[in-house]
Amino acid sequence: MTDSGLQDVPAVSRPHVEPGRLYIDGQWCEANAKGRRDVIDPSTGKVVTTVAEAGAADVDAAVTAGRRASGPWARMSGRERARVLHRVADLVRRRADELVAVESLDVGKPVSLCRAVDVATTAEIYEYYSGLAQTIQGATRQIPIPSHAYTSREPLGVVGAITPFNFPLILSSAKIAPALAAGNAVVHKPAEDTPLSALLMAEILAEAGVPDGVLNVVTGAGAEAGEALLRHPGIDKIAFTGSTEIGRHAARMAGEALKPVTMELGGNAAQIVFEDADLDKAIGSVIKGFVFNTGQFCMGGPRLLVHRSLYDTVLEILAGAVAGVPVGDPFDPATVVGPMAAERHLAKVERYVALAREQGGRIVTGGERLELGGGYYYRPTIIAGLDDDSRVVQEEIFGPVLTVQPFGTEDEAVELANGTPYGLAAGLQTTDLARAHRVAARLEAGIVWVNDWAMLDPAIPFGGVKQSGYGREYGPEALESYTKVKSVVIAL
Ligand code: NAD
């Protein structure tokens, strides 16, 4: 997805990870922590280390540190902050092996994917916002009152960043980099299942020169540390990525306190293959859309809609190709699909596939666990023959499962694609340029891909509509969302 020059770095082996502590005001600590939480390697089911479980007192200390540190950081020039963020990008590249090893161990991501996507994109996010840190500006406005009138953009203060388990490095960087570029401090609460890279990034940001207190990391449970962050009066914005259910709760809490929020929530995107598609390319894109990151991808495309004339052909080609996708140990460089990140995610996939069977769905390929080394593996699965209103089609499964449905007309394809509560991503395969634009305009989604899947870049905003949330990450849009506008009018 990105051109980082990292692809040639040699394979990495499973790292030994020391127990993690909280990172507050530039110190590694756990004085107030409520205990320790096991971190499990999803490819073996074994505990690899532990992290501190932050409580409300830790969150309070982190927010207090953020408030103290945010002023001096905000008063630095954008160019000075840019230099620091650029050093973060450099260090991410220099320490890529370490980051790949830790993220793969924690999430079960294939090392090849982790290197080419997660770590490469993390460096690019910091690089991109290092550039934008120097561009923050207001405008002068000419008004009829004799005056000098202008606007300026100011940082918000302290941002509470809450992130999910599936792309820990990328999704936390997509919040921390623009927030810091704009002059804010951040308190980051990573997902309980996958907290390790957040701690490593705290170390990297400190090494790059981010002052004490500007980034604080509190590992721990959503219901404890996350909740304390949502409730804290010293937090000026909540940047949340996670499920629609928890997002709704977070938005309610922020609404009560009148705090701005970014809500990056669930998805259940459709991939449409029209009768004029280039089939070779379409098949590759469809597979990428549902096996990428073992299907634990908010922007994945788990609903395939195929023109009736191609339905049987596409199913047959897909079944053969998917059965050949290498599933296995994330530390094997040849692996394309690793384990699910946690046992509960695997159990959820199993429940949905069982439901599909009950509802008369036909398992075209997969449909079972892969017993391998005690890990949480599930074979990439294709299910045909379900009705559109089946819960298996409508709900977010978040695993390597693709449902396939035929359609007849362009209108029908659009209706089916838009027919879930979600609206994060959508995609279509066509060789007809007019159709590409026409259908893209009608799809209810924050991002639409044509003739490929998951083309993402820090410069391209992403985010959802409908139950997939609101606000945008990436692009100048994200930077702006970490600022507030002030108008100044001086009488002349
Ligand atoms: P989740 O909602 O269970 O957890 C997300 C974060 O919220 C975690 O850090 C968790 O600890 C925290 N949390 C849980 N309860 C909380 C509470 N009461 N108060 C405050 N914080 C709380 O999501 P998940 O299972 O980690 O991630 C999967 C979900 O995230 C999927 O729905 C996926 O679509 C979504 N997601 C969305 C995007 C996007 O960009 N839109 C990206 C990745 C994942």
Mean pLDDT: 96
Radius of gyration of CA atoms, rounded to a whole number:
23 Å
Dominant shape: globular
User: Strands of the biggest beta sheet: in what spatial order?
Assistant: 14-17-18-13-12-19-20
Tally of DSSP helical segments: 15
Helicity, as a percent range: 25-40%
Which features characterize this protein?
492 residues, alpha/beta, seven-stranded mixed β-sheet, 22 strands, 39% helix, disordered N terminus, binds nicotinamide-adenine-dinucleotide
What does this structure look like?
This protein is an alpha/beta fold and 492 residues long. Helix content is 39%, strand content 20%. The chain contains 15 helices and 22 strands. The protein has helices at 56-75, 78-94, 96-107, 111-132, 168-181, 196-208, 222-231, 244-256, 279-291, 311-323, 343-358, 391-394, 410-417, 433-442, 475-481, and strands at residues 22-24, 27-29, 36-41, 46-52, 140-141, 147-155, 158-162, 185-189, 215-217, 237-241, 261-264, 270-273, 303-307, 362-365, 369-370, 377-378, 381-384, 401-407, 425-429, 447-450, 469-470, 483-491. The strands form six sheets. It has a seven-stranded mixed β-sheet, with helices on both faces. α1 crosses α7 and α4 runs parallel beside α5 (168-181). The longest helix has 22 residues, at 111-132. It starts with 21 loop residues before the first strand and ends with a strand. Mean pLDDT is 96; it is low at 1-7. The protein binds nicotinamide-adenine-dinucleotide. Nicotinamide-adenine-dinucleotide is lined by residues 162-166, 171, 189, 191-192, 222-223, 226-227, 230, 241-243, 246, 249-250, 264-267, 298, 396, 398, 424, 464, 468-469.
